[in-house]
């Protein structure tokens, strides 16, 4: 299966609906004089020119009317050809984050999109898979250069995924992993769901006991929410999806690093 057969590219109207900040024509008034405004749409078009097309977009919601159209936003890109090979069971992505209100630099991360669960991941640690730049200099050129840098990292990412897929976890080890993952989203002892619930498979093919699939199950359940649990007061609730741009990326990165750490503890 090729990317063209599996992934739908977003139209301009869909991008405008999902993340209007992509099309900002000027920065927010709060930014300093040294801030160089580069419209995100310029970066989107530049990535289109080198074969990467937007497949997902969202932005942070704000109650402040003057921030509408300037908030932090994220666009995920995939290719429509086979120039970049799959990583295990997932398509490589570029994940572009930006804002026009001075709240963040623009960032480019490696990502993976897994068709089985229609879910995206962010692959990044301090040594691999992320590019950060301030709003100075040639931002469009830097994001294109960053895309090539990340593509060169894909074989190393693929190697890690293969390693994760070969590591078997006992039920006790899965519980330790899931408990640690819960603490990435909630304070210790405050999670409304148990490790067993967050490690529950949503589909039969994901039920094997590998580290890779344990990561997949936990990541999907934490990011997408929908698990029934209890608050500390005893009130029944259903967990919410992670809807903020920065919260999603931060949690994804932390889960990847947790998975790397578990692989190290297993001697991989």
Question: What does this protein structure show overall?
Answer:
This protein is α+β, with helices and mostly antiparallel strands and 268 residues long. The protein folds into two domains: 3-163, no CATH class; 171-265. The protein has eight helices and eight strands. It has helices at residues 3-6, 12-18, 40-49, 139-166, 171-185, 195-198, 211-224, 245-265; strands spanning 52-59, 73-79, 90-98, 106-114, 119-123, 130-133, 228-230, 236-238. Helix 3 packs across helix 4 (139-166) and helix 7 (211-224) packs antiparallel against helix 8 (245-265). It is globular. It starts with a helix and ends with a helix. The model has no long low-confidence stretch (mean pLDDT 86).
User: Describe the biggest sheet?
Assistant: 6 strands, antiparallel
Radius of gyration: 19 Å
* Average pLDDT over all residues: 86
Count the strands?
A: 8
Tally of separate domains: 2
The tally of helices reads 8
